[in-house]
Structures are given as C-alpha cells and as structure tokens.
Amino acid sequence: MPLVPSVCFCSNLPVIPMKTIDILIYDGCVASNITGPIDLFNIANAYWQYISTEEQQNLFQWRLISQGQRSVVSSSGIRLEADLLLNEAIHADVIIVPGLQYQSLKHLEQTFAGFGAVHQWLKAQQQAGVKIAANCSGTFLLAASGLLDNHRATTAWWLAEPLRQQYPTVELCLDQIVVEDRGIFTAGATTAYQNLCLELLRVLGGHELMLACARIMLVDINRQSQIPYSSIQMVRQHHDSMVTAAEEWIEKGLSQSISLNQLADKFSVSRRTFIRRFKAATGKTPSAYIQALRLEAAKRLLESSHMTIDRIVERVGYIDSSSFRRLFHREVGLSPRAYRERFSIRHDNPEDYDQMESKP
Asked: In the CATH hierarchy, which fold is given to the domain comprising 232-355?
C-alpha cells in the first residue's frame, strides 16, 4: 500500500530546490512542536516523491539546533539529539522555535531571558533573510529577542495578557491561529504548530502541496481562530486575595444583576479602589470581567446541556436574547448554535437542541 493517496495535483512537476528547516531544541521544550513539524515535512517529501514521474530529490531537510549541549530533554522526558550547535547552523530557509512547558510566568520569562546567544542568532538569521516561526509560548522567545517589536503576532490564548504587559510594542492578534508579518510567523496554542507548518509549506512548496498534506494529515485548514477555545478561568495569575474573593462571589451570582456599587460595598472599599485593584489584578474592568464570565458560563452550558439558547441567556444573567447572540458572535467568533455544534459533548442531532430544555 502506498504511504500517500494516489492523487496527483500536477502532471509536470516543477523542480523546486530543497529547503532546509532548522528546529531549535532546548531543555523543557514541547516535543510535539519538534516531532510534529518533522512528520509533516517528511510526509510532504513522501508525497512529492510518490507523485513524481521522474526522480526528484526531497523538498525538505531538517536539522535540530541546540544553543549549547548536544543532548536536551523535552518537557515530557523525550531526549533529543542536536545535529548542530548555533555557531554551526548556517544557510537555513526557515527556523522553527517550539514552545516551552513552563511552571509559572516567571519561569517562562526567566528561561527565555537567559537565551542571549539564541536571541543574537535569531536576529542575525532574520537579517540574512531566513524566515522565523514560533509556536505557542515560543512567541515569548521571539519577543524577548526584540524580533517582534512593532510586529503583528499571536500566541497561546492564555498568554495574551502577559505578552501585552511585558511587550507592549507587539501588536497581538489573538483571534488568529497563524500570523505572518515580514517573514516572521507565530502561532497559537500547542497544536497550532500544524497550521503553522502548513502555512510554511504553502510558502515554501506551494498551495497545492499544502492542501494535499492537510488532507493526508487530517488538519483543518479552516481553523482560523483560537478564541472559541479560550477560557477565562484558566488565565487567573494574580495574588490579590480581595479580587480572588470578588471573582468567586461574581461566579456564584452570575444569574443576578451585579453592580459596581454592590461589589465595592461587599468588600468594604470605594468604587474607585475596587475598579483599580480589580483591573490591576485581572487586566479587565469589573464590567468587562463579568461579561467575559457570563460568556464563559454560556459556553459551558452550550457544551453540556440541551437547554435552549433563550434559557441559557436567562441563566447567565441576560435579558435580551438577540443582543446576547450578537455579543456572543462578536466575542467568540461563532454563533451560539455553531459553537454548540462544534463543542457539544453530546452526540444528538443539533437540530433537536432548540426543541429541548433541561430542567432548571
């Protein structure tokens, strides 16, 4: 059986010079951000060879690059052996920077701040015309090197606020899975490396080859945004006990009307003090936070219940169903119905949802 489907997109294939992909490796990196791209480019090579009527060389070769030691250990314990060290790595077409599995934001920042030699190498390669690509938290490494100053970029959705605060000159486009700006490519959370590599494949090998590999690997090239996957509960990273208590109190009373005066009185501070401390801790005003939390609650109900949309709107504290639907679509990127069809944990016919309602 052939490795790839016997579908040829072109009868006379062009001769494309082989491209070199350098992949940075370091202790604590996410292994799939390294092995996944290798698999994708390997399949691209196999497909290219399979459809060729004449003998042609591979389209891609890859090298693992380390800043110091030849052997590194990924976050999952997989040991990776470098082909070259930084000072030996020249003449690449693309450099891929994987994400780091970090224990805290401080750990993430300190790790990449200590990559001074990598920063200089990346900047030199970029100035030489090499394309640079980073996935997930790897975006922080590019930002730390200065490569993303005044550039559009994206990162994992839960790292958006820390990136904005630490690197304010980066124009963050969180709603996109992959962002390219002047030869620098960045991608969202972990498995976005698939979409990142397909975009690199399109740039290096053409649209048809990219489509063929997407079909073979079952990668959804229409996945354009990571916003529907985000969760506000996963991005709490502050240590303000009053704000934590306020967040918990808000969660319990989402179905009720919640005013700023009520919150300030509840925690015995002035309205101005409450707003200042809340925004400093969460990056959002109390009103924006309440709205985001209500949207999150609606998403959970859409995922796990048969409730009608109108009933869900009531449960999360809204009155006007039409305005909530517009808000949901604007903030999540999908209509409530489309979100339910994509993320519901049930397997019933989606058309039945509006006919059914769970008990209060």
From this structure: Arc Repressor Mutant, subunit A (1.10.10)
Question: DSSP assignment of 148-175, as one string?
Answer: TTT-EE---GGGHHHHHHH-TTSEE-TT
pLDDT given at position 244 = 87
**Per CATH, is 19-229 categorized as 3.90.1150.10?**
no
Of 47, 7, 22, 32, residue with least CA distance to 205 = 47
Provide CATH 3.40.50.880 ranges for the chain: 19-229
Residue of 72, 332, 329 lying closest to 227 (CA atoms): 332
Low-confidence ranges of the chain (pLDDT < 50): 1-2, 4, 6-11, 234, 347, 350-360
For residue 12, give Cα distances in angstroms to 15, 46, 51, 279, 319. Answer: 9, 17, 10, 60, 62
The pTM is what? 0.70
User: Residue 339: CB partners within 8 Å, gap ≥ 6?
Assistant: 228, 299, 302, 328, 332
What is residue 232's predicted lDDT score, i.e. its pLDDT? 57
Distance CA 204, CA 93 (A): 9
What's the confidence (pLDDT) of residue 6? 45
Residue range(s) of every CATH 1.10.10.60 domain in the chain: 232-355
